[in-house]
């Protein structure tokens, strides 16, 4: 089966990647990623990818039926042309002009992540959608009511039948369909990726920025995903308006205070503003924070006990490198857009 699916997609892979790829194949769909990527951490054996289920997940992702007043969908805060973030909004926006608690994180390369949400309070993507659906300021809907609405729809009855063998919508099936669609959102077509495949070369400025990145940023933003997806206190001044202490809000463990999930540096051009509360509008402000704004506390990341200082030219070089992580193929891919 693996051999047949690989043969089917071989011309596409040769044209688009021109590299040796690894692929996970389940039923009729495979997750394709470059050979320099690590193995996904998501257990596809428990939720095998299936094209009909991915399509169901895509429809659900764009359908406001999951919100209480049917005005907000998952895509309202995760726009495909913004690397599935909500560019320009420091906090998520929901039903009846509600404002969420944090900045909407970008959605891509989820198969390599063990935890979800800025505080890691969700440990399985197959249930992650429950959080925004139930949040009173985001989608504000009871999951049982959402399922009831789906079961009243002839169109959804047909789609659930194609995916699961019968027409009954359940909360588990709803969650798994949404996760399947999101798991297929893979960002692997930036200039950095083309460089890794030997198709392009970096400019002198990009190369210098790459070296600066490796020396100063890579311990938390490890290649090729550009995050360890662990948690860190990066010295942000506490925001009293939000009263957000990161993981500590859930665990009340002293070691978790001000610990937030480390975001990927991929697609930064599309995903501003930055940080869990969207406080920085530009990457220059981010660099300024690491030079002059770090607040010391017991949980501060050891890498930040000393400020990270770049001169003007080094900043330009580093930012030039970061632009090589933007994936224009991702944000324009009709496969991820609303049908």
From TrEMBL:
Signal sequence, renumbered to the chain: none
Entry GO MF terms: cytochrome-c peroxidase activity; electron transfer activity; heme binding; metal ion binding
Post-translational modification: Binds 2 heme groups per subunit.
UniProt: heme c 1 binding residues: 74, 77-78
InterPro entries: Cyt_c-like_dom, Cyt_c-like_dom_sf, Cytochrome_c_Peroxidase/MauG, Di-haem_cyt_c_peroxidsae, MauG/Cytc_peroxidase
Cofactor annotation comment: Binds 2 heme groups.
Location in the cell: Periplasm
GO cellular component: periplasmic space
Residue intervals of the Cytochrome c domain: 204-326
Domain of life from the UniProt record: Bacteria
UniProt binding sites for heme c 2: 217, 220-221
SUPFAM superfamilies in alphabetical order: Cytochrome c (SSF46626)
Tagged with keyword rRNA-binding: no
UniProt keyword terms in alphabetical order: Heme, Iron, Metal-binding, Oxidoreductase, Periplasm, Peroxidase, Signal
Cofactors demanded by this protein: heme
PANTHER family the UniProt entry points to: BLL6722 PROTEIN, CYTOCHROME C PEROXIDASE-RELATED
The protein, known as: Cytochrome-c peroxidase
The organism of origin for this protein: Chryseobacterium turcicum
